[in-house]
Amino acid sequence: MASAELASGRSAGRFFVKQGEGAGGAPCREKAFLDGTALFLHEHPVLRKSTTFRARYLNALGYFVKKYADGDARAQAVFNVYLQAFQGSGAPSSSNSNVLDDTKKLMGLGFSGILPTTYRYSFFLDVLFIVCYDNPALARTIFSEVMDLSPKMRSEKAQTLFEFLYHRGDGASIPRTQMPRTQIRRQLVCWAQNRAFSAKPLRTVLITAGMSSGKSTLINALIGKKISRTQNDACTAKIHYIYNKPYEDGFSGEWESVLDMNADEETLMTYDSESSVPYLGVYTYFRSSLSHEYKWCFVDTPGVNSALDRDHEQLSRNAIENGDYDLVLYVLNAENIGTADDRKHLEYVHQHVPEEKVVFVINKLDRYKQGEDCIDKTVGGVRDDLLEIGFQSPTLCPLSAYAALLAKKSLLNDPMNEDEHDDLRLLIRKLRKQDQTLSRFYPPSSPPSSEGTLPFWADGKNGRKRSGTLSKVLEEECRSLLCDSGLSGLEAVLSGNLNGDEGMDCGI
Q1: Cα separation of 233 and 214, whole Å?
Q2: Concatenated DSSP letters for 101-140?
Q3: Which residue of 20, 38, 43, 158 sits 20 to 30 Å from the alpha carbon of 310, by its own alpha carbon?
Q4: 202-499: CATH architecture
Q5: Burial grade of 479 (CB within 10 A; 0-12, 13-18, 19 or more)
């Protein structure tokens, strides 16, 4: 990596970290972990072939991975996903797999008897995606080698395909008359989506709070899936950098001590006790109404008033003082407003973050009881406290992150236990009441756009097939709950406030 890139901290929309850099830096030292790509294994044509054919296909892929990407963390991680997808969950990783043992011998046959001509263009796409997605010079070398090994590939169409991938792959389409093979059309669409996504500017939101504010639940609600741990303890011991993808590919990546492009929920919820790195990188598709004009990164920091580890506060402060972010999302617990720890941290944020970059979330308002608690009084009291600290016109966003998360889970038919189903019904009724609904604190333009009857991230058009059937009544109730909970309004604030738009003050 060039020293100039290291000095700047960012290059081409990616984060980089200096050796020994602390929590304010990027989540990984590997060049291409977070390169804006989603995998295109969904409906891959080779998945329909026999086990023997898939093994031969993997052998051929493995030849190029070993020859051109040996030691490349991203290439190895993506190839491991291919191994698992083509061979099953019990497949070994590339580091110890026998599937690569005889690749040279196989490739010496020039593809004869290995891959039918029909699948050579698909193979070509896979090689380039795994080994040199963002390296046109290396791709050109590999292109020449593939053409030499596979003389039956029509050079004109192969050249057209190559030019599309690296020079017109930002949304342009190949004319049907020049389409190499119809079965790669899905792969080409995915490639174009990746290229268009990688060109978008990155927007980073740093999230800070005290313990038990519901910060992890809020992050899960914004993303629309379980990524951050939600236990009522000092669960965030590291800085989490959570990046989105251009479309849902069914995979979540994690980087801590090693890069895993197919991390399951258990992996995402567990820290590597052997790793001394103070940060963790996560890479997944956001089921959210956040603006599609940007790539997004949420920076999840430890709770600042952890009784178990006072180092958490210093980690958070380092991230605030040294991090490169567009907004700070400060999460307050509505059930415990005005604590000394919160006051101390609010004063710190006021001293170190420009006010126009700060959004205050008042969370857990769904726990207020009618006749005993007053949401308006709480919002007004928070405003007064912030004015006293020195904020001039604070942006306040009342919220029920838990209600929003349940609404998204229901819309996507994600597994829910009996208590969650009961809570969902209760919160639908509760938050639609005039004095309980939180949508009234936000501009009318806050509700998310939708395609058909579902939000765009839940319509099944992004590589995810919805299971089960959601009744029309419950569907509409859940869509309304996204607004009533305040989440739609918050997503609008995060999207609009980035450019300093006027009229984003959501407090009363």
Answers
A1: 11
A2: TTHHHHHTTTTTTTS-GGGHHHHHHHHHHHHHTT-HHHHH
A3: 20
A4: 3-Layer(aba) Sandwich (3.40)
A5: buried
Of the ranges 108-117, 225-234, 280-289, which one carries the lowest mean pLDDT score? 108-117
Residue 335 in 3-state DSSP?
A: helix
Tokens representing 171?
């949304």
CA distances from 428 to 90, 193, 314 (A): 42, 36, 39
Partners of 450 in the β-ladder: 455
Q: Bridge partners of 329? A: 207, 359
> What gap in Å lies between CA 440 and CA 489, rounded to an integer?
9
At 114 the pLDDT is: 54
pLDDT tens per residue, range 183-204: 688 888 888 888 888 888 999 9
CB burial readout 52-90, b (16+ within 10 A) else e:
ebbebbbbbbbbbbbebbeebbbbbbbbbbbbbbbbeee
Decide if 267 contacts 283 (C-beta within 8 A).
no
Which phi and psi (to 5°) does residue 287 adopt? -85, 80
Q: Which of 231, 241, 237, 212 is nearest to 309 (CA)?
A: 237
Helix, strand, coil fractions of the chain, as percent rounded to 5: 45, 10, 45
User: What does the alpha-carbon distance between residue 308 and residue 366 come to, in Å, rounded to a whole number?
Assistant: 28
Distant-in-sequence contacts of 147-154, Cβ < 8 A, 24+ apart: 149/107, 149/110, 149/111, 150/110, 150/111, 150/115, 150/117, 150/120, 151/110, 152/117, 152/120, 153/117, 153/120, 153/121, 153/124, 154/180
Whole-structure pTM value: 0.83
DSSP 391: -
Task: Name the residue with tokens 């769904």.
Answer: 366
Q: For the segment 330-366, what is each residue's pLDDT rounded down to a tens digit?
A: 999 999 998 888 999 999 999 999 999 999 999 999 9
The domain spans of the chain are 45-198, 202-499
- pLDDT reported for residue 420: 96
pLDDT given at position 224:
93
- How much is the pLDDT for 99? 43
Residue listed under structure tokens 């700047």: 8
Alpha carbon distance 301, 238 (integer Å): 7
| Residue 45 to residues 122, 153, 311, Cα–Cα distance (Å) | 8, 18, 50
Q: How far is CA 453 from CA 93, 445, 461, 470, 471, in A?
A: 42, 18, 13, 11, 11
Q: If we measure between CA atoms, which residue out of 144, 152, 143 comes closest to residue 125?
A: 143
pLDDT tens per residue, range 365-399: 999 998 889 999 999 999 999 999 999 999 999 99
> 98: buried, middle or exposed (CB in 10 Å: 19+, 13-18, 0-12)?
exposed
pLDDT tens-digit series, residues 297-337 = 999 988 776 545 566 777 888 889 888 899 999 999 999 99
**Total count of residues recorded for the chain:** 508
What mean pLDDT, rounded, does the chain reach?
77
